[in-house]
Amino acid sequence: MEFDEELDALGLLCPLPVLKAAKRLRAMAPGAILRLVVDDPAAAVDVPHFCKEQGHALLNSEEQGGLQVYTIRKSGSRANS
Question: Hey, which bits of the chain come out as E strands?
């Protein structure tokens, strides 16, 4: 899946992965896609909850080699999409 930016949150524990994702998403354009890579087991609950509460779209979540990878579309829409 294509993405605009990637955030490596490996080694960070709750709530840091979500806080860092929130900060990165604030700096991104509406409709942009963030790929978030984490290894904190709590992210399986935290990331979907964060997306729902903030209005971002959780496009995909998967496990890759023991890591959790989330693809999040920032709320809003791109002007040219």
Answer: 5-9, 33-38, 57-64, 67-73
- How many degrees, rounded to 5, is the angle at CA 51 between CA 41 and CA 43? 5
**What tens digit of pLDDT does each residue of 20-38 get?**
999 999 999 999 999 999 9
The pTM assigned to this predicted structure is 0.92
Q: What sign has the CA pseudo-torsion 16, 56, 49, 5?
A: negative
Is 51 considered catalytic here? no
Catalytic residue, chosen from 14, 57, 59, 69, is 14
